[in-house]
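dude i think i finally got it to work??
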Amino acid sequence: MKEILSFKNVSFSYTPEIDDARKAVKDVSFTINEGEWISIVGHNGSGKSTMVKIICGLLFPQEGEVRVMNNLLTEENLWESRSQIGMVFQNPDNQFVGATVQDDVAFALENNGVSYEDMIERVHTSLKQVKMDTYLNHEPHHLSGGQKQRVAIAGALAMRPKILILDEATAMLDPQGRSEVLKTVSELRKEIGLTVLSITHDVEEALLADRILFMNDGKKYAEGSPQEIFSLGDKLIEFGLEMPFAMRMTKLLQTNDVKLLGEHMTEEELVNDIWISNFNK
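look at this
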């Protein structure tokens, strides 16, 4: 598989002049391959936001190296590296600058000198990809939260990035809006091979990932599949994270002597087990 982003022994401190200062990121290493969905989870202060700033070149590590598209990230190639990365942030209202949906998607393209003909094609294509092409002339502030985030994703896609970073992008959405956005990202990943890096507190969102990086106190505490990470159980709770709803419900049912074959990551798995173990006789 083609490597698209990597950290190698990366450390960063906001106060490097103090010898014993706490490091926001400590000796972190990982690799993301093209087409993967990786989630970074951890409580507030675990280093997630600092890692995003380092990936985008807003901060540079004091130790270690970062590679984007297998090229060492430096001040000289910073803008080229950033052009490979699309960002969607927590509050969609803070991202809108255009009077209409199409104006907003076109904004970054105009700033980057994209020709008018190419810009029109990119705006229409990216909005169609997120199923918002019928909202071209709508005012962004009249959209629902989920629709706003889908437009924000379209704006990122119009720049044709290799990596899409979701920085707590579903945190302010209701369940329907969250479902809309995650479904859109999942479909885009399959359709165009998009690489996704999600920074999240939402364990249900993290379940969609191929791998999870579990951060604690600036360090990578664990890395693995969702099943491997959530099998840590009480250790996750100790570090301020919740277990997926289906796992919590499984434990509750087992405590109350409901027969189950095992633990489950999703509600569908749990429902099927309840049916097989208790009613399908």
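The chain has one domain: 3-226.
im so relieved honestly
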